[in-house]
Amino acid sequence: MTDLKKRSLLKVAALSAAAAAALVACGKKEEPAPAPAPAPVAAPAPKPEPLKIAFAYVGPVGDGGWTFAHDNGRKALEKEFGDKIVTSFVEKVPESADAERVIRDMAAQGNKLIFGTTFGYMEPMLKVAADHKDVKFEHATGYKQAENMRTYDSRTYEGAYMAGVIAGKMTKSNTLGVVASIPIPEVVRNINSFTLGAQSVNPKIKTKVVWVNEWFNPPKETEAATSLINGGADVLFQNTDSSAVLQTAEKMNKRAFGWDSDMTAYGPKAHLGSAIINWGPYYIKATRDALEGKWTGNTGVWWGVKEGAIDMVSIAADVPEETKTKIAEIKKGLTDGTFTIWKGPIVGQDGKEILAKDAVADDKFLGGVNFYIKGVEGKVPGDKK
């Protein structure tokens, strides 16, 4: 084979190899670029633990009055805040050493907001508050406070006054009866306010009082109501926690009021109206303060008709329309500040002036009421005059 042929064959082979290489290169798929690594996902923030809230009740939740009203307030809290809170309660806690034990146990169980719902829990709560600075304590109707304890109350005397206006119009004997619980300023103030309301529409009114010295004792309340009716009272008012007074009036064909809660169902024929307390607005405010870090101790509030805490509801059909209109006017006046219940002239049993004409009682005066006004019979227990 000549050199020329060899060179030709080598050239052809080289061209073939190049062509094959080109074909292989053209048939090869380009590898995709690697996907970028996913950005790290932040772990969800841990859900905050619910605020644990406890309530100490002096009576049973089914008393139909005071404790029932507080428990309705607790239920309003649960509806408002859902799973942000957990509530619990202990009922029938006596105003004694047992109160301190129960409240101390509530703190030990991790409750960070504790409500004590009766006057007699004041000293026990102060003791427990001193030992549990990380817990917030709320005391109903008291006057002592601390760095981590504050007070709250409702102007029940506003409801008592409205009840008196109705009673003064509905009585036939001009004698009213009050079943009273514990002789503290709150209760004495309510007796006087009830009488002031009645006297505002009927100057002939006189009020008789029987003290049972307990907040909740249906048999004693029944006995006291019976005694008042036998003594000539045809309309009864109460500052006790059960429905026994209204039920007694129903049985004895007299009239009476519900107190703290709407008690219509307990004595529909006797019922003239119910002076109720709505604790929900305050409990919601206090809990929101705690959740938002705005809660402060050494303070107190006293809420009434203006704040939606006190009302007169379910007024009986046979109450005159003019009286119902007057009640509506009183509510409006208490709300906008144009009406004042404790405004002079007001005189005591001895005829001496307590408030001068046009003088208005301030909260300090109202907080120290320990006397009867003219028209209330008997003596305040403990009064040595």
Description:
There is one protein chain. Residues 1-29 have low confidence and may be disordered. The protein is elongated. The N and C termini lie far apart (154 Å). A 6-stranded parallel sheet has the order 2-1-3-4-5-11, sandwiched between helices. Strands 7-6-8-9-10-12 form a 6-stranded mixed sheet, with helices on both faces. The chain folds into 2 domains: 51-154 and 280-303, Rossmann fold (3-Layer(aba) Sandwich); 156-269 and 309-367, Response regulator (Rossmann fold, 3-Layer(aba) Sandwich). The protein is α/β, with parallel strands linked by helices. The protein has 11 helices and 14 strands.
User: How are strands sequenced across the largest beta sheet?
Assistant: 2-1-3-4-5-11
What is the count of helical runs?
Answer: 11
**Structural class of the helix and strand makeup?**
alpha/beta
Beta-strand proportion: 15-25%
CATH topology of the largest domain: Rossmann fold
Explain the layout of strands and helices:
Layout lengths: L2 H25 L23 E6 L9 H16 L3 E6 L6 H12 L4 E4 L5 H10 L4 E5 L8 E6 L1 H15 L4 E6 L4 H15 L6 E6 L6 H13 L4 E4 L5 H8 L3 E6 L10 E7 L2 H12 L8 E4 L6 E4 L7 H16 L9 E2 L5 E3 L7 H5 L18
Parallel strand pairs: 1-2, 1-3, 3-4, 4-5, 5-11, 6-7, 6-8, 8-9, 9-10
Antiparallel strand pairs: 10-12, 13-14
Helix pairs in contact: 2-9, 3-4, 5-6, 5-10, 7-8
